[in-house]
Specification:
By secondary structure, the chain is α+β, with helices and mostly antiparallel strands. Among the domains are: 11-291, Beta-galactosidase, Chain A, domain 5 (Distorted Sandwich); 639-761, Maltose phosphorylase, domain 3. It has 19 helices and 35 strands. Strand 7 and strand 8 form a beta hairpin. The radius of gyration is 27 Å and the shape is globular. It starts with 13 loop residues before the first strand and ends with a strand. Bound molecules: 5-hydroxymethyl-3,4-dihydroxypiperidine. The site of 5-hydroxymethyl-3,4-dihydroxypiperidine (IFM) has 10 residues, from helix 4.
Length: 761
């Protein structure tokens, strides 16, 4: 077992945290979280943290927030307002150690060593600690925990423990902590637990199988209670106890479905492999993902580590096998935002999955297909046609944004994003289109994607109202810049809407010419007639855009330029967001942007910024941005990199990297995964200069000074391509798939299977 507990030796593949602080523990637990898109687990200590059930936190801080999440397991808790939230499942890694009947607890005695290591290469959390108890017994232990990427229902825990004393009564309990919190028990027997959510009628089954060996000899457990194995022995100094625990988890979404047989089958699979087999399969699955999605930077260790951390969490968050779930704003690493799904997924995460893991991208988009009915209902309820996706979405696609939250003064603050942040509908359509372009997955497009594009286009035509000035306007919205609410003609929203309408028209044409049967069926199902299509055309032609043709500048929304000019940089040193410093009212009256808005539009629709327009708009809006969201810096980095401004790009990239890698207490609620997706985009799409939107991929890199090389792989229409950019050359190899064309630094090249082309930069 000892070998399995050793971290990958290369320092660039591991993150290490020593010690323990009540102030940062929760953030460390997020940062070092591990998962497989079905299950996610925070990196809380498994042994010595003690119970964590206190509820009143007036002047006491949480030190630890142990949580295991199961994607899609939503229920509505007793909160006000009542919005669905992920229900935690049992903490299957909990181990209690009692020495002479005294529990080993972190806040008692002295922790001589306490190190957690996130082994990103192996997708495993490793720990080692040495704890001297008040009775002067020293316990030394090492641990590995993982959630299998090879079999998403499976988890594994290995623990190796020894004492420095003879004659101590040792008692080890492998339990399931917090079991059934917020759910009603259905079954509790032997090594099986099953629970059901109270409101939504979903259920979860968990099974465990634990073995303990003492100096290699298996010890018989006592089974005093379901889901608890207890071993006792009298210690001999230096004697090694090795615990291995397999766990299996299954979810059922309907009240008449039983998850137990699925959990049982999963446990059987793991048992037949044994823990070594489970570990080996998991490591092989991670290795395959690193080959497909890894990014290598020579010449910048800090960003190398950051991009690896990003790929680690992005890989841990997705599940290509489940079309009914998507990725929440904090993945499965924390409670913030209750597991809700935002535009973050389509705009910040999808590019990574589309380019490196198309199966995962497809599932995420299918989630939007399965939640179309929720989006249709929201549009209809708001008086519009087509599909208006929920700003915050859980499992059904119904809008789940809380209508108000408590402000710092204890008074409720109305949340308008659920009512007004409509660009989400175009964002979903955008991701569908990007995926389809890059993968050529016609089956997806014809079966699901086209309907999303058509229904969202239909929404925009009903949303953009013709007015007496001859334009169609989209009033009363919130753009990505959420500091300004209830604005008219947000350029991001209107331009994305126009793009969505144009793709809707293109979809109709394409379906009619390539898949006439499907076109007829869809047009009939959606009752889409020529009059409506003419209206879409009119909306694309007459959409208000806020563009001043003389200056080339888009106005972020109608009236933005007339707001108070503010020296945003003067507030950069504050630890809290600018709207807290200057107040909500002043923020709303000022030219201060919460996050990339027009700048995000430059990234998404570069064709809307010909010639010098991209630079003009970037340099206008960049100084006005206060980066009050974790999504912002990465988008600025991407645009700056594409514009060939590596200095600004690197600055924003380092800011993004710091978000969850630095000891920032804001990570306590989970890692900010959109920032991580943005980081990958800034490196690969920005510095790497990848563009997968055309009939052939284009590569136009902008390597920053100091980087000797940048290497990564991407998928394109069934092929896998390896890219290596150096200061002088761009090398591209076709790793798998048939011959293709690729445009490298403006030069069209033929790529043959197995061959590499190298083009001078
Ligand atoms: O979706 C974002 C939004 O753009 C800014 N606030 C946080 C949300 C979730 O990450």
């Amino acid at each position: 077992m000892l070998e399995a507990l050793q971290p990958t030796p290369e320092p660039g593949w591991v993150l290490t945290h020593d010690g323990y602080s009540v102030l940062t523990e929760s953030a460390v637990e997020s940062r070092f979280a591990f998962g497989n898109g079905f299950l996610g687990m925070r990196a809380a200590r498994s042994v010595s943290r003690g119970p964590t059930w206190t509820s009143w936190l007036g002047y006491i801080r949480w030190s630890s927030w142990p949580r295991c999440y199961l994607a899609g397991l939503f229920d509505i808790p007793n909160t006000d307002p009542p919005v669905p939230a992920l229900v935690p499942i049992a903490d299957w890694c909990r181990v209690r150690v009692l020495l002479d009947d005294v529990p080993l607890l972190g806040h008692e005695g002295e922790i001589l060593l306490g190190t957690r290591t996130l082994d990103m290469r192996r997708g495993a959390l490793l720990s080692s600690w040495t704890h001297r108890t008040p009775a002067d017994i020293t316990v030394t232990a090492r641990e590995l925990r993982l959630l299998s990427l090879a079999d998403r229902a499976a988890g594994l825990q290995l623990q190796r423990l020894s004492l420095d004393r003879d004659g101590v009564e040792v008692r080890i309990e492998a339990t399931f902590g917090l079991a059934g919190l917020g759910m009603e028990p259905l079954r509790l027997e032997d090594n099986l637990g099953a629970w059901r959510t109270e409101g939504t009628g979903k259920s979860v089954a968990m099974m465990g199988a634990a073995t303990l060996r003492l100096d290699g000899e298996q010890l018989r457990p006592e089974r005093p209670f379901p889901l608890r194995s207890v071993w006792r022995w009298r210690s001999v100094a230096g004697q090694v106890a090795e615990l291995d625990r397999l766990v299996a988890v299954a979810r059922a979404d309907a009240p008449d479905e039983d998850p137990v047989p699925h959990a049982r089958a999963a446990l059987e699979r793991s048992r037949s492999l044994g823990w070594r087999g489970v570990l080996a399969a998991h490591e092989a699955a991670w290795s395959a993902r690193w080959t497909a999605g890894g990014v290598e930077i020579e010449g910048d260790d800090e960003l190398q580590r950051a991009v690896r951390f990003a790929v680690y969490h992005l890989t841990s968050a997705a599940n290509p096998e489940d079309e009914r779930v998507s990725i929440g704003a904090r993945g499965l690493t924390g409670d913030a935002y209750f597991g809700h799904v935002f535009w973050d997924t389509e705009i910040y995460l999808l590019p990574f999955y589309t380019a490196t893991w198309p199966e995962a991208a497809r599932s995420l988009l299918m989630y939007r297909f399965h939640t179309l009915s929720g989006a249709r209902a929201k549009a209809a309820r708001s008086g519009y046609k087509g599909a208006l996706y929920a700003w915050e979405s859980a499992d059904t696609g119904v809008e789940t944004t809380p209508e108000s939250v408590l402000g710092s003064d204890g008074k409720p603050v109305e949340i308008l994003t659920g009512k007004m942040e409509h660009h989400i509908s175009a964002d979903v359509a955008y991701a569908v289109w990007q995926y389809w372009q890059a993968t050529g997955d016609d089956d997806f497009f014809v079966r699901a994607g086209a309907e999303i594009v058509l229904e969202t286009a239909r929404f925009w035509a009903s949303r953009a109202v013709p007015e007496s000035d001859g334009r169609r306007h989209i009033r009363h919205v919130i753009g990505p810049d959420e500091y300004h609410e209830d604005v008219d003609d947000n350029a991001f929203t209107n331009m994305m809407a126009r793009w969505n309408l144009a793709r809707g028209l293109e979809t109709v044409e394409m379906l009619r010419s390539r898949w006439p049967g499907r076109a007829a069926a869809l047009e009939e199902k959606l009752e889409l007639g020529s009059e409506e299509l003419a209206d879409w055309r009119d909306a694309t032609e007459r959409m208000a855009t806020g563009l001043d043709p003389a200056s080339g500048l888009y106005e972020q929304f109608a009236g933005f330029h007339a707001l108070e000019a503010l020296d945003v940089a003067a507030y950069a040193h504050h630890k809290v967001p600018i709207d807290v410093v200057i107040g909500r009212e002043r923020t709303q009256g000022a030219q201060v942007v919460k996050q990339a808005d027009v700048v995000a539009l430059i990234a998404l629709l570069p064709e809307a910024f010909p010639g010098a327009m991209a630079k003009i708009n970037f340099h206008h809006y960049e100084p006005r941005c206060a980066h009050g969201s974790s999504l912002s810096a990465a988008m600025h980095a991407l645009v700056a990199a594409r514009l060939g401004n590596p200095e600004i790009a690197l600055r924003y990239l380092r800011e993004t990297a710091a978000l969850d890698l630095d000891p920032d207490p804001n990570s306590a609620g989970g890692i900010r995964i959109a920032g991580l997706g943005g980081l990958w985009q800034a490196v690969v799409l920005g510095f790497g200069g990848i563009d997968l939107t055309g009939e052939a991929p284009r590569i136009d890199p902008h390597l920053p000074p100091g980087w000797q090389s940048l290497s990564f792989r991407i998928c394109w229409r069934g092929r896998r391509i390896a890219v290596r950019v150096t200061g002088d050359t761009v090398g591209v190899g076709l790793v798998s798939g048939g011959a293709m064309e690729i445009v490298i630094a403006g030069k069209t090249c033929e790529l043959e299977p197995g061959a590499t082309v190298e083009v001078p930069r």
